[in-house]
Structure of glutathione transferase:
Amino acid sequence: MLTVHHLGISQSERIVWLCEELEIPYQLIRYDRDPKTRLAPEEYKALHPFGTAPVINDGDVVLAESGAIIDYIISKYGNGRFTLKADHSNFADYLFWYHFANGSMMQALSIDLVVNRISGGTRDPVIESLLDRVYRAFDLVEKRLSIFDYFAGNEFTASDIMMLFPLTTMRVYTPLDLKPYPSIRAYLKRIGTRPAYQRAMKKGDPDLIPLLD
Amino acid sequence: MLTVHHLGISQSERIVWLCEELEIPYQLIRYDRDPKTRLAPEEYKALHPFGTAPVINDGDVVLAESGAIIDYIISKYGNGRFTLKADHSNFADYLFWYHFANGSMMQALSIDLVVNRISGGTRDPVIESLLDRVYRAFDLVEKRLSIFDYFAGNEFTASDIMMLFPLTTMRVYTPLDLKPYPSIRAYLKRIGTRPAYQRAMKKGDPDLIPLLD
């Protein structure tokens, strides 16, 4: 039986959402953040030596890292659903957004969070270039979603599951006004109507109103 | 024809290396960093709207993001080489390290770089927790390589191609003494003997002595 360890208000919401989309059996265990530091509790950190969310168990397997877990669950239990094959015309786009979410976009947002928390200090060209990536990422997303309904094209895929977190719940930590991004806002509304997404958010973070605008 | 745009001393060394491992035809175009800022030149940034290395062209396809490019090239031209299938006992490990490289480890190293460049400033528990990830990552890698010759087990895979950069060339930007990590050092020696790696580094960064110890 698949066990999904969900840390409140974290990237592990993706895994709960994927399981709901696939309608596969899984056990959900919720963990709350420390109310003062907002960090994961010790029992969550102990689940995997890297100590970050998400983490799943599947028999002897203990697996971390969103991209790895989603690929794993889809391959093992999802029959390849929500992925595109190499001969699909949107294959490269599918791969790009799937990897861009954590490889570049979450990195840009995390650096933004760090720079904003550290008061004062020097802002040299390297730092400025790293900060600029947040806006380049949102501009890139806006452009993509002004052409297609979903990241990989006109069908919902795992790229959407990877990309949603930096556009929604991550804004709890790095607030950003989405007014300049009408296509992103339309996309978030579209995702918000998905019953699986609604079920996942209700189960995973019942006290959070999903940041869909 | 596949074109690999290699920015000197950057993550795009992975793509040159992959092409050499697969022994597939490709055109290599090198770009030097600005000697003062160490940033990518404008012509490199113009290749893809996100402006980061690596970038490849393949016919009409313009693709960025290491993980996406490696998956793409292996699927299109590599016949699935250097990947593991879902029924392989090391499948979850393969996925983990493949995604961990940029999803978590490069993020931890980039945050380290940013914090060290910004003089002074507050170090609150969230910042400390993010910085701590660098050491947790290296400890995790050391433990893995003390058991297996390669990241996914006893065979060389694309996980090794993803993971090598944060262990080697990234140390140009975030220096780190590898003395406490004997298994990582033994692994780097092992990779350093691969003819494809040697060819790739000579072609991509002829003036750089690979950071293999």
Remarks:
- Residues 130 and 199 of chain A are 36 Å apart (CA to CA).
- The mean pLDDT of chain A is 95.
- Residues 91-194 of chain A form a domain with the Glutathione S-transferase Yfyf (Class Pi); Chain A, domain 2 fold (CATH 1.20.1050.10).
